[in-house]
């Protein structure tokens, strides 16, 4: 409804003193002026501040994924590790300094496995050239993860990403250990880790589907999946044993990587759920999705119903990307994603 007709109704309501009409008018005004459904984020946040922002991110991501699809997997995982720790505030990107010698990126859930930092630098560099000091690093991660999902799924996972996140100024390596549970986790620990961040059991099942792309180091699954009896498919186990040292240790110098999804390694699709059903997944945390009737049912739906997972993944990514976002005095727009601004 155009605002002029709302204004006319408001005049009519006050002059005629009709309580019902007045109430209706207020209701209409409330609807017309309501905040973004993504509050405090909004779609098209950079529409006026930096109109090219989203196109720039997309162009860099397209090129990077063309060179190596792992670049897409990297930023999708980065969004998860950013948002679950201190909220989606790019605290994951901060480098060590004398005042903050052990930031999140040095914590075991991130180091040495998390990748994509140089790619974020490249995007930031392009954005600073176009619109200096405008686009936050936290929004860059969110846009990049959205674009990665779109490219890796050949357009089947396609969604708008609201923006307006500010970058945080605090990062501590002890925090990721509190909020990012290890791949050896059982279902109850996985669910708890999602619920404390306002994410549901279904979000857990749906977002775990991101393990349809990317890689894993052997150390992330050897001790609990290969070295001891597990439900892992014997064919996959044999393949993994041929690739991984039996004592694979993170950061040891002998910790090779393997693909997450052995069927369609670079495609963002629902193959992950068919892999869960055939026990052809790497982690205890993946296999755990079959250990309750509720989550097992969701796995089957995601595996079998075309488009089911894609629809839910789009919404769950936007939801995850809104965890504990910072606005106003809570944050800043960093000039360099690796360091906080000093004024
Ligand atoms: C539910 C609990 C989760 C656990 C325990 C978990 C654990 C892991 C582990 C251990 C790796 C391999 C790291 C390595 O050794 O290189 C990995 C990779 C990955 N994870 Fe997760 N993850 C979880 C949820 C998620 C979520 C919610 C997302 C995103 C929506 C995600 C996206 C990815 C991606 C894309 C990779 C591949 C990264 C690359 O290729 O660099 N994961 N995850
Ligand atoms: C980071 O956390 C550790 C352990 O909780 C603590 O000892 C240290 O002081 C923290 N560092 C900062 C900069 O807050
Ligand atoms: C899940 O694992 C935790 C340890 O991380 C353990 O305390 C808990 O009892 C386990 N829950 C179930 C249901 O096995
Ligand atoms: C792993 O085992 C091999 C031989 O079995 C040994 O040479 C190597 O030092 C071990 N590596 C670690 C990190 O323990």
TrEMBL record:
InterPro entries: Haem_peroxidase, Haem_peroxidase_sf, Peroxidase_pln, Peroxidases_AS, Peroxidases_heam-ligand_BS, Secretory_peroxidase. SUPFAM superfamilies: Heme-dependent peroxidases (SSF48113). Its EC number is 1.11.1.7. Residues 40-341 form the Plant heme peroxidase family profile domain. PROSITE patterns: PEROXIDASE_1, PEROXIDASE_2, PEROXIDASE_4. CDD domains: secretory_peroxidase. Its cofactor is heme b; Ca(2+). The active site is at residue 81. Heme b binds at residue 211. Disulfide bonds join 50-131, 83-88, 137-337, 218-244. One of its GO terms (molecular function) is heme binding. The record marks 77 as: Transition state stabilizer. Removal of H(2)O(2), oxidation of toxic reductants, biosynthesis and degradation of lignin, suberization, auxin catabolism, response to environmental stresses such as wounding, pathogen attack and oxidative stress. Belongs to the peroxidase family. Classical plant (class III) peroxidase subfamily. PANTHER family: PEROXIDASE 25-RELATED. This is Peroxidase. The gene is LOC101753799.
């Amino acid at each position: 409804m155009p605002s002029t007709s709302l204004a006319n109704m408001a005049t009519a309501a006050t002059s005629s003193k009709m309580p019902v009409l007045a109430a209706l008018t207020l209701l209409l005004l409330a609807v017309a002026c309501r905040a973004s459904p993504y509050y405090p984020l909004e779609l098209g946040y950079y529409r006026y501040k930096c109109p090219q922002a989203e196109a720039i991110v997309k162009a860099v991501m397209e090129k990077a994924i063309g060179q190596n699809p792992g670049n897409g997997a990297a930023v999708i995982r980065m969004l998860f590790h950013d948002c679950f720790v201190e909220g989606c505030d790019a605290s994951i990107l901060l480098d060590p300094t004398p005042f903050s010698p052990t930031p999140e990126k040095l914590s075991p859930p991130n180091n040495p496995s998390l990748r994509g930092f140089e790619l974020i630098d490249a995007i930031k560099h392009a954005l600073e050239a176009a619109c200096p000091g405008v686009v936050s690093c936290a929004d860059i991660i969110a846009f990049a993860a959205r674009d990665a999902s779109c490219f890796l799924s050949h357009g089947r996972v396609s969604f708008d990403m609201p923006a307006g996140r500010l970058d945080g100024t605090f990062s501590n390596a002890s925090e990721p250990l509190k909020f990012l549970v290890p791949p050896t986790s059982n279902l109850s620990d996985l669910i708890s880790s999602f619920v404390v961040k306002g994410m549901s059991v279904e979000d857990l099942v749906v977002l775990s589907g991101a393990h349809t792309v990317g890689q894993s180091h052997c150390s992330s699954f050897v001790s609990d999946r290969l070295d001891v009896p597990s439900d892992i498919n014997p064919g996959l186990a044999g393949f993994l044993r041929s690739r991984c040292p039996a004592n694979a240790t993170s950061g040891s110098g002998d910790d090779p990587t393997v693909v997450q999804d052995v069927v369609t390694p670079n495609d963002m699709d629902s193959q992950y759920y068919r892999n869960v059903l055939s026990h052809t997944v790497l982690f205890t945390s993946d296999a755990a999705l079959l250990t309750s009737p509720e989550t097992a049912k969701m796995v089957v739906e995601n595996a079998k119903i075309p488009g089911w997972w894609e629809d839910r993944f789009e919404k769950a990514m936007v939801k995850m990307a809104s965890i504990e976002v910072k606005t106003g005095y809570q944050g800043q727009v960093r000039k360099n994603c690796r360091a906080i601004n000093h004024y």
